[in-house]
Amino acid sequence: MRPAAGTCRNLAISLHHVPTNPFLLHRRLIHHGPDTIDELLDRHVVKNEKTRDDEEADLLTRQRLTSTRREALSLYRDILRATRFFVWADSRGVLWRDVLRENARKEFEAARFERDPEVVTRLLIGGRDAVQSALDKLAQKQREQIDKEKGDRNRR
């Protein structure tokens, strides 16, 4: 019985022997197998093959998200460009340009994580309409101001 205990002790020592070089230890641990259950399942469970329809649906979803993202960025840039024309100050002395830009930023941040395509489209259309309406009103007021100044010059 004595020799079997000694053999077991030697076997245990040889199994638990840790290399002194940390690089070898790290390399040895990497190749022992998966670190997590997910890795184990990924390696050994048969995955469903994607069908052509799934790939096309993924592509359409990515294109839709990309196009709405592009459209949102385009709208934001248009808002920044349009606010250049609002150079007068409000009652607090703050330029309207800065007020409009701050409000636009808040609106975009509020809708930043919206994923419903219908809601995103509605927001984009509403934003485009608002920018166009503001520019039309600004142009109309400037025309009225020019006409008023021409009328004042003609009376003199």
Automatic annotation (TrEMBL):
One of its GO terms (cellular component) is mitochondrion. It comes from Rhododendron simsii. Pfam families: Complex1_LYR. Residues 70-131 form the Complex 1 LYR protein domain. InterPro entries: Complex1_LYR_dom (IPR008011), Complex1_LYR_LYRM7 (IPR045298). GO terms for biological process: mitochondrial respiratory chain complex III assembly. This is Complex 1 LYR protein domain-containing protein.
